[in-house]
Structure formats: structure tokens, C-alpha cells
Amino acid sequence: MKRLPTILAYIVLVVGGVLMVFPLVWMLLTSLKPAGELFNLEVLPRAPTLDNYRQVLTQTDFPRWFLNSLGIAGITTVSVLFFDSLAGYTLAKLRFPGKEIVFVLILATLMVPTEMLVIPWYVMSVQYGWVNSYWGILFPGLMSAFGVFLMRQFFQSLPSELMDAGRIDGLSEFGVFWRVAFPLVRPALAALGIFTFLGNWNAFLWPLVIIQSPEMRTLPVGVALFSGEANTAWHLIMTASSLAVLPVVLVFLFFQKQIIEGVVLTGVKS
């Protein structure tokens, strides 16, 4: 009887895991079905084919959309890691008038929904000529208030004596940040980088608003166009989605330890 709670816990976890994985498996198997088999209730395709993948890769702009999303997500991630960690270090380890007010104002931006910012972002983009440009897609995500908060929490946990030792050794303040503090917050950097990459990889609303030409589209915007009022190409949607999810799966497989460690440590920093 003592093992009953453990057995029940494993059963619940297995059932939950199956429910979460099944839609992904269904999507992958559906991408291998010919168009005539799409609405069959059978899970396994009767005649598996790669024609859907050939069509997506050769007859659409999917490769260009993939590179657009990869470049935008990569550049945004690098920018967030550098600037958010720099701001977090400044708010955690430096003293200057109004520091707490600045931090509170940064946190206050988290309460503003992204949908409310789309109009002012677009007006500014029109004024500066950023519409239908990579910079227009990039600029809203180059820094994040959540990243500043996360990095500040981690930098606060570092002993200030380490920073003082770096200053005594002759390092500049940026040198102390870059050579002493920055390497010590790798779990937070890994978690922030993964969340930022995934968030920008899946971004839909802002790219949809700012993009006008087909070659500038990102993956979510491009895949959404496979669905129309008159006809929905479900076989292409499933195929494109299967290809689009590969980077996300790879990121999780290679960095799942950092994801879990970063989330756990975030909850205990103060």
C-alpha cells in the first residue's frame, strides 16, 4: 500500500505524457499521408509519401520563411542576452539615484499586453520607414522586461566581494560585468535564451502586421497562408508545421537541463 501513491503518480504522468505527445505524432504521421487520406480516422498512413515535403520545400517559399525566422530569432536572442544581462547587472550591483524607480517602471511594462503596443509600434515603423523590413520585425524584441527582471535576480545572488576583487585587479566596470559576473549566471542566460528564441520563433501577430512582401514572411505567417476561405491545404499545413517544429524540439532536447535548472533557480532567487 505504501507504493500505491507512487504507482498512481506514474500512471498520471504516463497518461499526461501520451496526451501531450499524441498531437505531435498525429501531425508527423498526417504529413506523410496523401491528400486523399487526410480525413481518414486511421493513425498510420496507408501509403506513406514524401510528396508533401517535396511540395512544401520546392513549390513554396518555405525555405526563405525558415531562414527569416531563424535569423530573426537568433539575432533577437543574442540581443536580449547581452542587453538584458547588462541592465540586470546595473540594477543589481551598481548604486545610483532612482535605481528602484527605474526597476519598478521596467516591471510595470509587463502589465501592458502586446496587442496594445502593436498600433504605436506600427505608427513608429511607418514614420521611420521600417515597414516590411527586418529591422521592423526585430526592434520590439531586442530587449525584454522579463529578461531584465530575471537577470537582476540572479546578479543579486552573486557576492559583491567578487566584483570588488575585479575592480581591485584593475578591471573597468564593464570588464567586471563581462569577465566576472557574466560567466557566473549561465543557468539564467540559458533559460532566458531558450525562452526568447522560442518566443520569437513562434511570433505571429507583429510579423503579420509589419510584413507586406511574401519573401519577408516568417514561418508562422507563411504557414497560416495555407489556410484560406475557399480551401485549406491541411496536408501542407501539417507538413510545414512538422518542419517548423524541428528546431523547437532540438532546442529542448539539447538544452532541457538548462531549461529546468533556470526555471528552478529563478524561483529561489531574491
Protein architecture, described:
- It contains 13 helices and no strands.
- It is mostly helical and 270 residues long.
- It has a single domain (61-268), classed as Orthogonal Bundle (MetI-like fold).
- The two termini are 40 Å apart.
- 26% of the residues are buried.
Q: Could you tell me the radius of gyration in angstroms?
A: 23 Å
Strand percentage lies at under 5%
Relative helix content: over 70%
* Spatial gap, N to C terminus: 40 Å
Q: What is the β-strand count?
A: 0
CATH topology: MetI-like fold
Form type: globular
The low-confidence runs, each spanning 5 or more residues with pLDDT under 50, are none
- CATH H level, superfamily name: MetI-like
- The structural domain count equals 1
Give me some keywords for this one.
mainly alpha, MetI-like fold, 270 residues, 71% helix
Structural topology:
Elements: H1 4-30, H2 51-59, H3 62-93, H4 99-108, H5 114-128, H6 134-138, H7 145-156, H8 160-168, H9 173-181, H10 186-201, H11 205-210, H12 219-224, H13 234-268
Helix pairs in contact: 1-13, 2-13, 3-7, 3-10, 8-9, 10-13
